[in-house]
Amino acid sequence: MNLKIAVLPGDGIGPEVILQAKKALYAVGVVYEHDFIFEEALIGAVAIDKTGTSLPEQTLNLCLNTDAVLFGAIGDPKYDSDSTLKNRPEEGLLKLRKGLGLYANIRPLKPFKGLLDVSPLKREIVEGVDFVIYRELTAGIYFGEKKLNESETIASDLCEYTEEEITRIAHLAFQSAQKRRKKLTLVDMANVLETSRLWRKVVTKISVDYPEVSLDYLLADNAAKQIISNPKQFDVVLTSNLFGDLLSDEASVITGSIGVLASASLGEKNALFEPVHGSYPHAKGRNIANPFAAILSAAMLLDYFGLNEEAKKIYEGVEKAIEYNVVTLDLNPDSKFGTNEIGEFISNFILNKDDLMYFNNDNVHLGQSTIV
Ligand code: IPM
Ligand code: MN
Question: Is 311 close to ligand 1, i.e. is its CB under 6 Å away?
Fold first, then answer.
């Protein structure tokens, strides 16, 4: 298969984790004979620094004309405290989601067997968890009108949803539930918010088309509790933009680290794959960022194009790395391995190289293995 992939490393640890995802894709290309062409573009704080805008037109155009986008991370603390700033790095990502029509953000939550004890939650809560969050991504409070009065004492963010915006993601979520355990949970605040009541009405109406799927409703505050006290109950969780953002970060606790969570953002014509984590500026350039989420996002990209065997191979590579304890500090505080070594390990696994064993030697120190 020929795929043209726009690569947007972005800020902070973005470039170093995306490099590992590219290594994995490159290895897949070699082994399974695919032609992946990567083209890089700027977004976020680096884009503001170099071009004055967080989403240069060139970047959007590239993404509109590629098969898929691989995205790293966005955000830089130097832009965080400046309230006068018109063009924030994060805006680049929001504009990109809107520009590509990526209305459905899909965030699977399935802990790796080898990481069950890394989670701060009890093993019996974590073991067997397998659900997926469908987060609406191009509307709601993220995109509603923003206001600040002249004296800067009153501010508001409008949360708006149309029936159509709810309908299109609801269908995707129901279709996913139908292929899974046939349970869909709509998370909202229908006791307080008008938009949530519209979500309930629309989703309930659509549920008639999916008679095999059982639909239930959960208020977001309760969902926040249930997601870490009894996460096994969930199969597909459908929710709005803001609730989905909050709940998916919270849910990362189940897997032990947000550094292992990948996501796909889909629209009618475009698809973008990105780690759930942020730019982690403190770790930038230190070879300590967990590349699993970026690598697994590349696997989601392959799955999206029907390259399921290839995606599975990447997934197995991550499992193998965990088995060999070739993980970053967030998963093992004594680890001697960094971002790069993990990327090498997984690409070697895909390439079926036989020097993986170097990594399994307890005596190995950084710099002694043949491939570090
Ligand atoms: C995410 C991020 C973004 C979001 C930020 C960077 C705008 O947290 O993708 O989850 O809130 O959507
Ligand atoms: Mn987030």
Answer: no
